[in-house]
Amino acid sequence: xxxxxxxxxxxxxxxxxxxxxxxxxxxxxxxxxxxxxxxxxxxxxxxxxxxxxxxxxxxxxxxxxxxxxxxxxxxxxxxxxxxxxxxxxxxxxxxxxxxxxxxxxxxxxxxxxxxxxxxxxxxxxxxxxxxxxxxxxxxxxxxxxx
Length: 146
Fold this sequence. Notes:
Elements: E1 11-17, H1 25-36, E2 40-46, H2 52-62, E3 64-69, H3 74-79, E4 83-84, H4 86-91, E5 96-99, E6 105-108, H5 111-121, H6 138-145
Parallel strand pairs: 1-2, 1-3, 4-6
Antiparallel strand pairs: 3-5, 5-6
Helix pairs in contact: 5-6
């Protein structure tokens, strides 16, 4: 990496989950930040089950700009958000939380849209087709809603 050193001005984003150390998200996001010349860093934060809402609420005090949320925290994280997108509200689940300038935490669920985009990239149009979704967690519900 040729990015400047992390400083007091560096903005922080993260992924929370349990487990999460295996996540490729830090590598992907940090490469994007470097390519775009952004003074940001993205890390994986292991958060034990049952502590997802507390981790989301801590974003304000810690100055974390954004979180990606993975298992087992998606439903619990939604309860800690001040504002939910229509999808997140319908699902009672979030996989993305952004801290606004006013400190409000905004939750969204992008799993369903991401799944549909992956199908489109593979040349598959699910319109009018039947599907079986195995799983009832946040991502499974998001795919079913999409």
